[in-house]
Amino acid sequence: MDSFLADFDDRLPWKKTSGALKATEILRGSDGTGLTVVLAEASSEPSKVDLQGLWRMRAGRSADPVLVLTTYPSEDGERVAALGPDGSSVPVSGLEEVQAMSSRPAAEMRPR
Questions:
Q1: Phi-psi region of 77 (alpha: psi -120 to 50; beta: other; left: phi over 0)
Q2: 58: closest CA among 7, 97, 9, 15?
Q3: pTM of structure
Q4: Which of 5, 60, 63, 105 is deepest in the core (most CB within 10 A)?
């Protein structure tokens, strides 16, 4: 997951919890995306409610689109659940889908 987050060089600690999710840091993106990424961890696949909780905590303080990425273990190895750029999004768990979400221009991500 780190390879497609390489452009996010502005990293800040952010220790928040939502249900079973524990946020660890925030990454602020380039001017091209304007995207804020919240990195979190969970011990199992996170619920949409927990993902939305973290999203709301961060989005309420940011004019930029917010993407929550949560790693969790599975039988197939580590997986990633993502929610964003708006709180009503449906969570996805495929890495290719997550990469596509994080590379969209900011204008496409902002809720209308």
A1: left
A2: 15
A3: 0.76
A4: 5
